[in-house]
Automatic annotation (TrEMBL):
Protein name: VOC family protein
Annotated region described as Disordered, given as residue ranges: 101-121
CDD domains reported for this sequence: VOC (cd06587)
InterPro entries tied to this protein: Glyas_Bleomycin-R_OHBP_Dase, Glyas_Fos-R_dOase_dom, VOC_core
Length: 121
């Protein structure tokens, strides 16, 4: 069972809000640096935690299959739910980059590749 996924972000607040708003995720906790600035936001995805962690590293844009983690894919129930999420993500300013018979691909605010899929398990 997967415990958590850690995702580096230069703008933790913006990236966490993107995932929380799009997928209606609950915020579990926030962590701060000693100076009070935001270090991370943890979001609940069923029994897994999405940890959006602050980084100063430059953006690493992956196209297709890259080395190491290269995609966050979220399950949706069916085609109608996928199309509804496509509309929401586009309204949030992220265009759909690719579609297959079961999945739609787009980017979060910092360029990480994300998908929604109803491919049978």
């Amino acid at each position: 069972m997967l415990h958590h996924i850690a995702l580096g972000a230069r703008d933790v607040e913006r990236v966490a809000a993107f995932y929380a708003d799009l997928f209606e995720l609950s915020e579990k906790t926030r962590h701060h640096y000693d100076d009070g600035s935001l270090r991370s936001v943890w979001l609940e995805i069923d029994s897994t935690i999405l940890m959006v962690e602050h980084t100063e590293a430059p953006e690493r844009r992956v196209e297709g299959v890259g080395a190491g983690p290269f995609l966050l894919a979220f399950a949706v129930g069916d085609e109608d739910e996928r199309r509804a999420l496509e509309a929401r993500v586009e309204a949030m300013g992220s265009p759909i980059e690719e579609r297959t018979g079961f999945s739609s691909y787009f980017r979060d605010p910092e360029g990480n590749r994300v998908a929604v899929s109803h491919y049978p398990r």
